[in-house]
């Protein structure tokens, strides 16, 4: 595989712990590396159990401050933080590319999305409202006034992944703060650097000490947060096994889990094939397929199967793989060589089981070529599991009903896409697909920050999107006032 030339070492940063408004060092250190150049990027200060305890203690101390802060001030802080991220957009984007290999243009876009997420969260801080309950609908409710309030849940434990490190932090931290909560955040150990920028932006915006605390580390640090009795809610994005573990050990805490998928997409015989193929290629392989809603399975009605496949291969062949620092690069490395080796092994296993590789399949370090598979079967890992890599399987079907059944034949149910010129077919898919979201004439890999985002089955519990996350992160409190003289 041809690899585009290097642009050189991007330097090294330090990600310390942030507890009670102060940066703290740790004797235990780890090092993140650029997945393409393999050069050191960030020195990570790993939290101990005592550090987690201190972080929760700081969050507890800040609880009354955040709960008592007027909504307009919470909104102002979030809006100023969004402005600060955009002011530093270039350097923040460079930190993302350095740590997770996301192509530079996509990293720039992520910073903009994270800022927008904080802005939407700021809007929601001002919209938190209850409702009036008609108490006199019952004879026992005469002379009583009833209404509800939204109050903070308390301390939010947030655990975020590497693939969209800044924006997914914003999707958890922004709504938590908008709702008047405090936060203990554990970023992915592969991508800690951008958490420093987020904290600095919130700090510059006037967030009180202790309102956000950051502890770095692996699963043991995450489990310490999840099991801590002072934490009231846990929000996590990651894999099924980790999500199941969190649910099992969280006790009576509320948990919000976004656990990924193996997104199915449908191409009907009446679809715009060129558009469908172009968007499928972009959204199956962009950021090396490391998105939980990336196109993974494509079901194509048989009359247009060959024509669609030809177009898909044409668009895939135009994608440029290589150094993520170069502006012309479409697809950079996966998060690590180990991750690429796993996906390569799945491709080879599928081939041994009868699948054919029409393009791609070759690996060079953490770079894996965009891979199109046909002649797959439902039980193959590349079909039934979450690949989380640049691999797509294309299957011919005889009807829309067969395609819908195939998409639904999955333990996941996050998002799906369908291309069709028929409103009737589109609505049939919308009503029948067992997923959290359906994109009509677009692929599964579409998300706006303000929309409700979350799945069914093993794809998770709860919804993201600032409006919906704020509701999840607040408690509805009933108030009854006796007006009798």
TrEMBL record:
<dbReference type="InterPro" id="IPR015590">
    <property type="entry name" value="Aldehyde_DH_dom"/>
</dbReference>
<comment type="similarity">
    <text>Belongs to the aldehyde dehydrogenase family.</text>
</comment>
<protein>
    <submittedName>
        <fullName>Aldehyde dehydrogenase family protein</fullName>
    </submittedName>
</protein>
<dbReference type="InterPro" id="IPR016162">
    <property type="entry name" value="Ald_DH_N"/>
</dbReference>
<keyword id="KW-0560">Oxidoreductase</keyword>
<dbReference type="InterPro" id="IPR051020">
    <property type="entry name" value="ALDH-related_metabolic_enz"/>
</dbReference>
<dbReference type="InterPro" id="IPR016161">
    <property type="entry name" value="Ald_DH/histidinol_DH"/>
</dbReference>
<feature type="domain" description="Aldehyde dehydrogenase">
    <location>
        <begin position="28"/>
        <end position="478"/>
    </location>
</feature>
<dbReference type="Pfam" id="PF00171">
    <property type="entry name" value="Aldedh"/>
</dbReference>
<dbReference type="InterPro" id="IPR016163">
    <property type="entry name" value="Ald_DH_C"/>
</dbReference>
């Amino acid at each position: 595989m041809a690899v585009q030339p290097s642009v050189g070492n991007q330097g090294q940063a330090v990600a310390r712990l942030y507890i009670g408004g102060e940066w703290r060092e740790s004797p235990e250190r780890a090092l993140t590396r650029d997945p393409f150049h393999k050069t050191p990027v960030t020195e990570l200060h790993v939290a101990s159990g005592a550090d987690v305890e201190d972080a929760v203690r700081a969050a507890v101390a800040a609880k009354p401050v955040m709960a008592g802060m007027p909504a307009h001030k919470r909104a102002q802080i979030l809006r100023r933080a969004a402005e600060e991220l955009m002011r530093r957009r270039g350097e923040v984007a460079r930190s993302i590319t350095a740590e997770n290999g996301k192509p530079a243009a996509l990293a720039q876009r992520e910073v903009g999305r994270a800022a927008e997420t904080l802005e939407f969260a700021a809007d929601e801080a001002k919209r938190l409202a209850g409702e009036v309950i008609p108490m006199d609908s019952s004879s026992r409710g005469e002379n009583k006034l009833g209404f509800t309030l939204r109050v903070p849940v308390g301390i939010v434990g947030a655990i975020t992944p590497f693939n969209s490190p800044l924006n997914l932090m914003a999707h958890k931290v922004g709504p938590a703060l908008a709702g008047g909560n405090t936060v203990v955040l554990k970023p992915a150990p592969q991508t800690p650097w951008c958490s420093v920028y987020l904290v600095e932006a919130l700090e510059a915006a006037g967030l009180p000490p202790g309102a956000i605390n950051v502890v770095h580390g692996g699963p043991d640090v995450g489990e310490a947060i999840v099991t801590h009795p002072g934490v009231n809610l846990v929000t996590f994005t990651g894999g099924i096994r980790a999500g199941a573990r969190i649910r099992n050990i969280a006790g009576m805490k509320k948990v919000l889990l976004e656990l990924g998928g193996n997104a199915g997409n449908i191409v009907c015989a009446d679809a715009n094939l060129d558009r469908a193929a172009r968007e499928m290629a972009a959204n199956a392989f962009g950021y090396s397929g490391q998105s939980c809603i990336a196109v993974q399975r494509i079901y194509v009605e048989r009359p247009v199967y060959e024509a669609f496949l030809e177009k898909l291969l044409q668009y895939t062949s135009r994608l440029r793989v290589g150094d993520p620092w170069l502006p012309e690069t479409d697809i950079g490395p996966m998060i690590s060589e180990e991750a690429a080796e796993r996906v390569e092994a799945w491709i080879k296993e599928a081939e041994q089981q009868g699948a054919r590789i029409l393009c791609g399949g070759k690996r060079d370090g953490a770079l894996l070529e965009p891979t199109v598979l046909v002649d797959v079967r439902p039980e193959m890992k590349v079909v039934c599991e979450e690949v989380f890599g640049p691999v797509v399987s294309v299957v011919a079907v005889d009807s829309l009903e067969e395609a819908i059944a195939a998409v639904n034949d999955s333990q996941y149910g996050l998002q799906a896409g369908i291309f069709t010129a028929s409103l009737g077919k589109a609505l049939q898919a919308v009503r029948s697909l067992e997923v959290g979201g359906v994109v009509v004439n677009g692929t599964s890999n579409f998300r706006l920050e303000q929309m409700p985002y979350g799945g069914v089955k093993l794809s998770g519990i709860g919804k993201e999107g600032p409006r919906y996350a704020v509701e999840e992160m607040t408690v509805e409190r009933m108030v009854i006032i006796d007006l009798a003289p």
